[in-house]
Amino acid sequence: DLGTISTTVPKSMANSLMDTRAISYSGCAAQIFSFFFFISAEYYLLTVMAYDRYVAICRPLHYGTLMGSTACVKMAAVAWVSGFLHALLHTANTFSIPLCQGNTVDQFFCEIPQILKLSCSDSYLGEVGLLVVSVCLSFGCFIFIVLSYMQIFTAVLRIPSEQGWHKAFSTCLPHLAVVSLFISTGFFAYLKPPSISSPALDLVVAVLYSVV
Questions:
Q1: 3-state class (DSSP) for residue 84
Q2: CA distance linking residue 20 with residue 27, whole number of Å
Q3: What mean pLDDT is reported for the chain?
Q4: Best CA proximity match to 90, nearest among 36, 24, 26, 34
Q5: Are 87 and 95 in contact (CB under 8 A)?
């Protein structure tokens, strides 16, 4: 969370205070790489957290085996490495596209859909395809999270104690709320049709998935 916000908000605040919207080409590339790295790693870690909650509530006797320190380190490492590769692929692909529609990005940070609007050929379709693959992968993780929580809620409803219900739901619902907000606004930002795109709408959606 801290990494994602630190990638976009400080530069935006500095530009606002200095009454400018400038960012260098290399700065924009670094911002896209850092943003995708942190936000991808965060999403994979949120998926791991859903699995952790599933094991803790549905298979408590196996928790020590399935979620031991070695398993946690491996899953965290996979999340961070996947985030790095994801960010590297998108950044390299985006900045290999020739741009000829000016140099103004209608957003408070360098966002790939806004940069693709500046492309001057069909070469941007490769990055669009890559974004679609990424969204499908993200949707697969989301389905995994939803199925995990369905199992969790089924197990929780079997708990006879109201205190047990409260403890389980207070642990799971905040995580589910964060994932739902992140996924819904992120999907909308990257998959919405151009016909309903507007600077104000793009700004609100970007703030929701990248800051809130």
A1: helix
A2: 15
A3: 82
A4: 36
A5: no
Contact (Cβ atoms closer than 8 angstroms) between residue 110 and residue 34: no
Question: Are 84 and 37 within 8 A, CB to CB?
Answer: yes
Beta bridge partners of 119: 99
Other CB atoms within a 10 A radius of the CB of residue 5 amount to 14
d(CA 14, CA 2): 18
> How sure is the predictor about 82, in pLDDT bands with cuts at 50, 70 and 90?
very high
CA distance 63 to 65: 5
Summarize the confidence of residues 50-74 as an average pLDDT. Answer: 88
Beta bridge partners of 97: none
Q: For CA atoms 119, 105, 107, 28, give the dihedral sign.
A: positive
pTM (predicted TM-score):
0.80
What sign does the CA torsion over 96, 101, 105, 111 have?
negative
Of the candidate ranges 85-89, 137-141, 149-153, 196-200, the one whose mean pLDDT is the lowest = 196-200
Nearest to 126 by CA among 162, 166, 168, 98: 98
